[in-house]
């Protein structure tokens, strides 16, 4: 099925709009993307606001969770790879592009894109924000946009590229499972041994070397004393100069 991109001029949140449609009993087919020119209520991970800017990509899509599908949590890696592949077609310096656990995309160490998954009964809504033309300021967090190193990609062209990329990754996820998915994610991510600091829900930091990902997609750290630690949720930062 070919993806369909629906564009609205302004909304609070494309993800919230799709969630509302699902809750109202509307059928939102897979491959349908809702994209906004401007978004004033976008959401990021851990309750953060996702700041919009004209010319950037802000959109969401729906995945129907089927009984035979891999674990739904692994969809974050599907989305991350789809965004990575779409951006690769438009970035001037592809070697500077890097995934960060669990689903952020960095350009030269600064945040370029973010992904948020939300569950709605037997569906998942995947929200994506990509800095194409501008990089709204974030406190204590470097950000970049693709227009810094060349012409900013056309938003509508990027939307179609992402929709196609996401469709391919979703099909591979269903057909091949998570082992090839995690292998490909690792190839595009910060290298093993990268020093990461993870802030959990209580704000307590844990620092260690990146030691891969577990079979369920959890982050594996090797602490300074050699202890292994498995992290299932948290806010991850990469130590400066250690990526």
What does this protein look like?
The radius of gyration is 17 Å and the shape is globular. α2 (75-88) packs across α3 (155-176) and α2 packs across α4 (178-188). It has a 7-stranded mixed β-sheet, sandwiched between helices. It has a 5-stranded antiparallel β-sheet with strand order 11-10-9-8-12, with no helix packed on it. The longest helix is centred in the C-terminal third of the chain and has 22 residues, at 155-176. 35% of the residues are buried. It has 2 domains: 4-188, BirA Bifunctional Protein, domain 2 (2-Layer Sandwich); 195-238, SH3 type barrels. It has 4 helices and 12 strands. The termini are far apart. The protein is an alpha+beta fold and 243 residues long.
Secondary-structure topology with pairs:
Layout: E1 4-11, H1 14-23, E2 32-39, E3 57-64, H2 75-88, E4 97-100, E5 104-107, E6 110-120, E7 123-130, H3 155-176, H4 178-188, E8 195-199, E9 205-213, E10 219-222, E11 228-231, E12 235-238
Parallel strand pairs: 1-2
Antiparallel strand pairs: 2-3, 3-7, 4-5, 5-6, 6-7, 8-9, 8-12, 9-10, 10-11
Helix pairs in contact: 2-3, 2-4
């Amino acid at each position: 099925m070919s993806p369909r991109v629906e564009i609205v001029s302004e909304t609070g949140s494309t993800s919230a709009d799709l969630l509302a449609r699902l809750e109202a009993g509307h059928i939102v087919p897979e491959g349908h993307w809702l994209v906004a020119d401007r978004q004033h209520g976008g959401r990021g991970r851990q309750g953060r606001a996702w700041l919009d800017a004209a010319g950037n990509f802000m959109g969401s899509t729906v995945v129907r969770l089927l009984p035979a599908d891999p674990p739904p949590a692994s969809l974050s890696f599907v989305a991350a790879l789809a965004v990575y592949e779409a951006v690769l077609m438009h970035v001037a310096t592809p070697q500077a592009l890097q995934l960060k656990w669990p689903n952020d995309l960095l350009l030269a160490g600064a945040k370029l894109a973010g992904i948020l998954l939300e569950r709605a009964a037997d569906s998942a809504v995947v929200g994506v924000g990509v800095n194409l033309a501008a990089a709204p300021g974030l406190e204590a967090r470097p950000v970049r946009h693709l227009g810094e190193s060349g012409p900013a990609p056309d938003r509508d062209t990027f939307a179609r590229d992402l929709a196609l990329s996401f469709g391919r990754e979703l099909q591979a996820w269903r057909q091949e499972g998570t082992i090839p998915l995690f292998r490909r994610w690792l190839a595009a991510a910060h290298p093993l041994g990268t020093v990461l600091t993870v802030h959990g829900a209580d704000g307590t930091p844990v620092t260690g070397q990146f030691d891969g990902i577990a079979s369920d997609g959890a982050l594996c750290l090797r602490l300074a004393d050699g202890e292994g630690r498995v992290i299932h949720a948290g806010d991850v930062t990469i130590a400066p100069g250690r990526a």
